[in-house]
DNA sequence: TTGTAGGCGTTATCAT
DNA sequence: ATGATAACGCCTACAA
């Protein structure tokens, strides 16, 4: 494998010193128009690409960001992809590349990457309430952004979707439609406060809004939502009441349960969901839904991260929240 | 941001020369048990991590592999994720990291990454019949593996799923079930030979097997499959015949079309698909299907790639094919 | 505006 | 079995 041209080769061809080539690239000092032209021509002629390793060594900047991804997780793959794509694009704009690290490597992965100076910053996805990586990050003196909110956010930079508002919006939509009770198919009330606290935040949003509207709520755990099936079998709208349905986890299972009983969303009951745009639109009846917006989250992460990098700070405490919005579709047909 | 300990620090603490530390890491010369112990203790005590850039510069090995990914493409996100996860895991086993490059960067992305020696090899996904990146790779003297098969594979290392066998298996299954004609909802006959030639290979598999079984086939282009809807409306089983359905692209649209007419796969018609396992199982009636196996492809790619890297070859011409298998589910209920 | 030179942290070739 | 030491390719004071 050929070694490829170096800045020295460029310099020779352009008839300048090697440092001039370097300064042409960095723009850190003024160059005469003539010199600039000659150097750029030489670079083009040789198809010169600076050696990333040498650059990292001398400049102590890798122009690489690591992103710690929870592959085999509860996350939806489409969401993950969208997030990553958007992030890579944003990174490229700043002339950064993206290194992939699996969450399975755990805390050691973070240590390895940061210790080896393979990157200038890291993004850690799907953070849990008690996340060891948060503790590590605090001691690291290295810019890390967390997606998700650990219990103790001291000294941490976090970004997350507004799950609480999501829960609230869904409840209010069903309330506005005249529903008098709610059936929630999701992570379930007993998951509140466990691992990922977005579950808890969503539940809080639902509960708060339901109380405000005096709507009784019954929760059913997906995917083994026998209770949910029982509700459907018992009749959704007993004695003049009207049951609105909220789906979070186990969407496809829930939709199947409805279909098997001949229940059509929007006709026989109002159904809303917390899911991706794609999921909402793929259903037999497209769902009115609040969609977590991975691209918005991604942009916010990128923005914040590059601010940190440019500032040279290790981290800048604070939780950024990406707003939630509801999109109406056919599953809440009547007005 | 602290500079972190160097091998020099380790050497000092262990009371040895810096080169000894290096040799302890590489194992390229024998070390006395005593020295080994002292060096390892020092490394642990300082939490030493070798500087990746310096290592790449001196050793001309990055221990990084770039993977060029088609984010916003026809690929299913779940497939992509599975592929990538499996690949990252395999890479880690060989002590390699993975750099993400978007296909949107096109040919320049490949050039940039390889030129800058940011990686020791690259994987290019979703290769088209006439792929510029293939031409570049041939001139590159750099190990590249392609997923997908360009028209001219001279000097190229390619891996792909056996789409032809997939088509054949699906047809044979429907034939065995007593169907007398086929309706295919997919990329359509006119897509054959265009961009991604797996479409053509799949079509060839279908056509070949259909001819062997003397089954007439009508093709319908997804997603605007009006023709498909017409077939459903015209009645699937005219005068004693029986129409088997094959779905490829536009699966959800096709399933919806059936559902809207009250047609249940496995009861009213045999339905088979080329899709992911997840898709096959998510449907209201789980589908008998041939599933592209991203993890199998990934493993084959990794295996081949590390063989190349270890051998120091730029590439090793040849097309590896990942076998196709059919899994029976409820959508072909009757025997 | 431009050139010179030292150093970044490894690897690998000499020696010993 | 181990120590010096010269690259590796680039960045950046320091000079001019």
TrEMBL record, chains A, B:
Domain HTH cro/C1-type span(s) in chain numbering: 6-49
Gene Ontology molecular function: DNA binding
Domain of life: Bacteria
Keyword Transcription attributed: yes
Key words of the record: DNA-binding, Transcription, Transcription regulation
Residue ranges constituting the HTH lacI-type domain according to the UniProt record: 5-59
PROSITE patterns the UniProt entry points to: HTH_CROC1, HTH_LACI_2
SUPFAM superfamilies linked to this entry: lambda repressor-like DNA-binding domains, Periplasmic binding protein-like I
CDD domains: HTH_LacI
Keyword hit for Transcription regulation: yes
Name this protein carries in UniProt: LacI family DNA-binding transcriptional regulator
The organism of origin for this protein: Nesterenkonia aethiopica
